[in-house]
Amino acid sequence: MKSLLKVNEVVELIKSGKKLVLAADEKLLMALPKGQWIGGTIPYFMSENGGIETTELIQVGVLPDFVEHCTVIHYRADKLHKIPSDYEQNGVSFIMIPAFSNAHFEFAKNCSSYQGIFDHPLLGWITGYQLGQTVLTKPKTFNGLTGEFSEDGALVMHLNLREDKFGKVNIINIFNQGSGDAISFKETGFEVSSCLVNGVETSFFDYIKSNNINTQLPLVANYSGAAVNVSIMTLNEDKRTVSLYAPVFPGVDYKIAAAVESYEGEFEKHVSRMNLTKPTLSCNCVLNYLYANLEGKKTANILGPMTFGEIAYMLLNQTMVYVTFEDKVAP
After folding, report:
1. For 212-264, how does the pLDDT look when each residue is reduced to its tens digit (9 = 90+)?
2. Which residue, 42, 147, 152, 212, has fewest beta-carbon neighbours within 10 Å?
3. Helix, strand, or coil here: 150?
4. What is the pTM of this model?
5. Which are the contacts of 155, defined by CB distance < 8 A and separation ≥ 6?
């Protein structure tokens, strides 16, 4: 089945009782009937035919039949720590959070401290909007079971799988730390003014400007061998600060990422090494879509929305996140 569908095609899937994860412009999601689905706003997608920007089609993830049941819960920003307490015993949880909402900031800063957050697979994305709008439309999430939408909080679909299956969260990050300076920060934050460069305190804004740093390259931290990106949003000339798409944390050494010559080529290398079959649900970053000029280009056979942030237990940037469902091995 193709992944980008018209409203009437999605309506038929909903009426048939399918469990769905949807991404589209808000006017399309508002036109859908109630059913077993959740949705988030975004107009950028990786489809069978390549990258596309559209507000006329809905990208559909159809959950497999071995998902026995699902519950959908909306968590206010001050209740996000309760998400793990609602994990299913043999489950996967899919999360959507509106960009730049209170929940976005709370989750990004504190999710790693939520008790039990890593006990079962949690993945999803930060919902967004079409860039370049004259009048800004706020990102939203949609609860198909109730017909309600929200501009804040986290919407989570908790899935319970058949006993012979399990879910696995996976990450593809084509960026690695470059060979430049070690950069650290004294405070957690999405907007920073000062930093330590090789242990010497300086203005992060001035450091980027004076060294002609390519801000399309993320900051990369090394967490026990795993590269985690923090993308640069804007340089604020008036305040001489730097806004980020994810927070930086104290006690962590970051480096500007090494340049990537070919996004498509690097991505293909990662996929071929992993012998990856088509995942059920995935998302990539809208910055990768924009910076790598992915309109009309394909990233292997991995389809999904290009979002304002990716979640694999914690908030990520310029990264692909996906879930695979696998067979349990009999003891």
Report:
1. 999 999 999 988 788 899 999 999 999 999 999 999 999 999 999 999 887 77
2. 212
3. strand
4. 0.92
5. 38, 40, 72, 73, 74, 75, 95, 96, 97, 141, 142, 143
In 3-state terms, what secondary structure has residue 303?
coil
218, 243, 246 from 93: Cα distances, Å:
27, 30, 21
CA angle 310, 119, 42 (to 5 degrees): 20
| Torsion sign, CA atoms 109, 113, 118, 121 | negative
Percent of the chain residues past pLDDT 90, beyond the cut: 78
Give dist(CA 92, CA 90) in Å, integer: 7
Residues 6+ apart with CB under 8 A from 250: 184, 185, 186, 187, 188
Q: How far is 202 from 262, CA to CA, in rounded Å?
A: 33
Token representation of residue 31: 């036109």
Domain residue ranges in the chain:
4-172+265-327, 183-256
Measure the CA–CA gap between 98 and 142, rounded to whole angstroms: 10
Closest CA to 97 of 80, 119, 116, 118: 80
Report the candidate in 110, 107, 121, 112 with the shortest Cα–Cα distance to residue 158. 121
